[in-house]
Amino acid sequence: MTTTLDGAQVAELASREYQYGFVSDIDTDLAPKGLSEDVIRLISEKKEEPGWLLQWRLNAYRHWLTMAEPTWQNVTYGPVDYNDIIYYAAPKASKKKPSSLDEVDPELRAMFDKLGISLAEQERLTGVAVDAVVDSVSVATTFQRELAKVGVIFCSMSEAVRRYPDLVRAYLGSVVPYRDNFFATLNSAVFTDGSFCYVPKGVRCPMELSTYFRINAAGTGQFERTLIVAEDGASVSYLEGCTAPMRDDNQLHAAVVELVAMEGASIKYSTVQNWYPGDADGKGGIYNFVTKRGRCAGAGSKISWTQVETGSAVTWKYPGVVLQGEGSVGEFYSVALSAHHQQADTGTKMVHIGKGTRSTIVSKAISAGQGQNTYRGLVKVLRSAEGARNHTRCDSLLIGPRCGAHTFPYIEVKHPSAQVEHEATTSKVSEDQLFYCRQRGISEEEATSMIVNGFCREVFRELPMEFAVEAQRLLSVSLEGAVG
Amino acid sequence: MLRVDSLHAGVGGKEILSGLSFELPAGQVHAVMGPNGSGKSTLAHVLAGRGPYEVTGGQVSFEGADLLALSPEERAAAGLFLAFQHPVEIPGVANMYFLRTALNAVRRARGEDEVGPGEFLGLVEQKAAQVGLDRALLQRSVNEGFSGGEKKRNEVLQMAVLAPRLAILDETDSGLDIDALRVVAEGVNALRGPQRGFLVITHHQRLLDYVAPDAVHVLVGGRIVRSGGAELAPQLEANGYAGLLGPQAGGALAPLAS
Predict the structure, then answer these.
(1) Does residue B77 belong to the interface with chain A, where contact is any CB pair within 8 Å?
(2) Are A274 and A308 in contact (CB under 8 A)?
(3) Please, what is the average pLDDT of chain B?
(4) Chain B within 8 Å of A461 (Cβ-Cβ)?
(5) Into how many domains does chain A fold?
(6) Fewer C-beta neighbours within 10 Å, C or N terminus of chain A?
(7) Quick check: is A458 in a domain?
(8) Which residues of A are less than 8 Å from B164 in CB distance?
(9) Cα–Cα distance measured from residue B237 to residue B208, given in angstroms and rounded to the nearest whole number
(10) Is A356 helix (H, G, I), strand (E, B) or coil?
(11) A450 assigned to some structural domain
């Protein structure tokens, strides 16, 4: 199903700048700047964590000290001073998590209203359960009671650690171990909040689950950790959205998301990433260095990633799937936009282990202004993966003469029966297309937006309806001023 | 309706139209004929406002307004439509969505209410049936994978839906078989009316067998060298442009054999 904006909406939106760039005046509880074992102990203590988790964090931290920041990615950014970051920031009112929305700090509610996510309305009207994370903590989770009726656990990670420690302990780090990579290891040491979701055997989660991430406090990093487990035959669709205020300095966002799908289970994970991208001259913006990975543990399981990346100054992420279970399926649908001075190095990793595993990759990269967009993907078929199949389609669209598109596909095949296909195209929004639209009365900006949306159609139709509309809107806004 | 007065235009410093003049009153169909390279397509594109063509002299007024001062989309909103010789493909954009976006953009510019999806569906299906365009093509991406004939029918469909004041057909007949040619002609004839003008640019007389023009202009070397009634077209077909021109192309007119 495709959805499309009408011209008036596009025109109205195209005249806006980054509209989520406001700062809310919320009294915030901050940890001292910098990273040390003491800071980690403080975070763990604030969250009333069990000893094993503190130990896990410290192990990660000690390992992190031995690691070097990666430099292989095709992006450039100034050095990050890890001792100049605040690793824990919590809106003060949230010390005790409210049991109902009426108890949520009015300032916080106002902030979410301003973001267009009225928590109360979400609860009443849309039928989407929302976990709202501000800076380091989850401030509200809606629909928990309804979900509990069918046995679905949906709460913040902190709450999960307190109430379901055995589940967390069993799966935390089972897909992305704390030694995985520089940023995932850092996250393991200092992660603050995020969402936890557990769908028991045979349950189809009755509503979309959603987490909304918001960085508000200055000088902080956001290090959330999300864990989703779907037991045998369970299914769940999960949405993630994110914004941040406009600030002149760069802020670090280093999240980890782990998904586990058991036999016949399916997890669909959709992201619309709209972190502040920096201004038109490339000043400020979020560094989005994220590790997302799913494990199709059981036979016939399926994990599908859909991402629309329009924000951040620098994006560096490769949501992947480890296809362990026989006949399991991994999918990756991506739209990544780099306008102005944005840089994105993104793609996926599909690791085929089980027999008859299949993966599909559809990547649409759009570069405008001086944006640089890199697709980097790994398709790896191990010796055990008899009859594995992959199809990759990787398209780049260039708008204007100063942007760039780059593609680095890595393919490693160890089984002779594997079928791996890779298609790639690079095209431009042509003068002919623009003139054709304009001759029909459509303005250049609206035409560009329409052509870009058309280019992304294959990915947008994978998104839940509401997100698809949001994604189209974001593309139109993000392209503003970067065209021509 | 349209008045072109000593129009000079070219591209990259090279003049292609050298002082071209004619007038098209409302309610009439005028044909512009001429040999390859005479500036026919340039004329169509200059009237529609396409870059990189530059106007270096002369005036064009459309419904009393200075056409050359308007952007391409403003010209469209004013009621100028160009049926392209080579319609452009737009992958991923549904034909129907494109057309509704265009119609609403034009309506908005005129201060009219937009047409909702339901109402539009009825309109477009009726028009598609008129021009014999397969309904399935409405859901496909704009012109993508269309045959040559389907692309031209699609242009006629767009014209029928947008209902312009002035339609310029840029060699819409080129490469069409006789059936498709009839469809194009019927599309034009169905839209003919006292308030509407057509400028039919063509290399051959064929289309004019089905769309009787009120006047024929012969374009050679960037200038109208001869204007006449509908009878001019078969004469050109019989004698060729050379017969009309005499020994030097673009030079003095030789008398027409009659």
Answers:
(1) yes
(2) no
(3) 89
(4) no
(5) 1
(6) N
(7) no
(8) none
(9) 11
(10) coil
(11) no
B21 in contact with A at a CB cutoff of 8 Å?
Answer: no
ipTM over 0.85: yes
Chain CA centroid to CA A167, Å:
23
The domain in which residue A245 lies consists of 92-430
A146's tokens: 């309804």
Q: Chain A residue with minimal CA distance to B46? A: A439
Q: What is the largest CA-CA distance in chain A?
A: 68
Query: In this structure, is residue A252 part of a structural domain?
Result: yes
Predicted local confidence at residue A481, as pLDDT: 64
Place of tokens 């980890």: A256
Put simply, the answer to whether A8 touches B114 (Cβ < 8 Å) is yes
What integer is the mean pLDDT of B46-56?
Answer: 93
Q: How far apart, in whole angstroms, are the C-alpha atoms of residue A429 and residue B90? A: 9
Q: What is the pLDDT of residue A13?
A: 41
Taking only residues 167 to 196 of chain B, the set having a beta carbon closer than 8 angstroms to any beta carbon of chain A reads: none
Query: Per the CB < 8 Å rule, is A439 touching B98?
Result: no
Residues B213, B219, B222: CA angle, nearest 5 degrees: 145
Q: Using 50 as the pLDDT threshold, list the residues of chain A that sit under it.
A: 1-16, 94-95, 121-127
Tell me the two tokens of residue A368. 């405008």
Which of B72, B101, B114 shows the shortest C-beta gap to A439? B72
Tally C-beta pairs within 8 A across A and B. 91
Q: How far is CA B104 from CA A14, A355, B107, in A?
A: 17, 53, 5
pLDDT of residue A15: 40
DSSP per-residue string spanning A39-106:
HHHHHHHHTT--HHHHHHHHHHHHHHTT------SS---PPP-GGGSB--EEEGGGGS--SSGGGS-H
Q: How far apart are CA A39 and CA A31, in angstroms?
A: 7
Which amino acid is located at B144 in the chain?
E
The angle formed by the CA atoms of residues B133, B138 and B141, to the nearest 5 degrees, is 120
Instruction: Annotate A235-271 with b (16+ C-beta within 10 A) or e (fewer).
Output: bbbbbbbbbbbbbeebbbbbbbbbbbbbbbbbbbbbb
Q: Which of B50, B71, B102 sits opposite A440 (nearest CB)?
A: B102
B81 CB within 8 Å of a chain A CB: yes
Q: Quote the pLDDT of residue B89.
A: 94
pLDDT at res. B9: 96
Min Cα distance A364 → chain B (Å) is: 12
**Residue B250: pLDDT band by 50, 70, 90 thresholds?**
very low
Per-residue pLDDT, A24: 61
Per-residue pLDDT, averaged over B62-67, amounts to: 94
- Domain-embedded: residue A368: yes
B59 touches chain A (CB under 8 A): no
What's the predicted TM-score (pTM) here?
0.81
Q: Determine the average pLDDT of the residues in B4-29.
A: 94
Neighbour count for residue B23 (Cβ, 10 Å): 14
Which pLDDT value is given to residue B247?
Answer: 47
CB atoms under 10 Å from CB of B218, counted, come to: 25
Tokens of A273: 């990433």
Our CA-based measurement puts residue B72 at a distance from the nearest CA of chain A, in whole angstroms, of: 5
Contact B91 A439 (CB under 8 A): no
